[in-house]
C-alpha cells in the first residue's frame, strides 16, 4: 500500500483516532512502512463485506496505523468515517507531494509489520462466518 502520512492522518481523524493521527506525521520511515505493509495485508486478507468486497483503503490505512501506534490490533474508535472540512487545494497538493520511503519499501517483505496477533484479530473468517 503506497500512501502518504498526510492521507493516513486524515483517515485517522475521520475514524476518531486523534492520538494516532498526531503520531503518524512524525513516524520513522520504518514505522511508516510497517503501517503500509499491514494496510496492504488488510486489503487482501482482512475482513470483507458480506458481498465479498475488501475493506476500503481508508479503513485499512487507519487500522494499520492504530496497530503500529498501539503495538497491538484493535477496532477503530468509530465504525463509520465522520466528514471533515474539505481540504484547500494547496493542502491537498502538499499531502499528495509528500515523500514515500520507496527505497526502504523495496528492502522489506510486502506485508512487513504483520504479526500473528494481527492475523488472528483481523483475518477474514470466510463466507458464512
Q: Helices and strands in order, then pairings?
A:
Layout: H1 5-14, H2 18-24, H3 29-45, H4 57-70, H5 89-96, H6 102-106, H7 116-122
Helix pairs in contact: 1-2, 1-4, 2-4, 3-4
Question: What attributes does this structure have?
Answer:
single chain; mainly alpha; 129 residues; globular
Average pLDDT taken over every residue: 93
Radius of gyration: 14 Å
> Uncertain regions: pLDDT < 50 for 5+ in a row?
none
* 3D shape: globular
Q: Strand share of the residues?
A: under 5%
Helix content: 40-55%
Largest sheet: none
Which structural class do you get from the secondary structure elements? mainly alpha
Number of strands: 0
**Order of helical and strand elements:** HHHHHHH
> Number of helix segments?
7
The termini sit apart by 27 Å
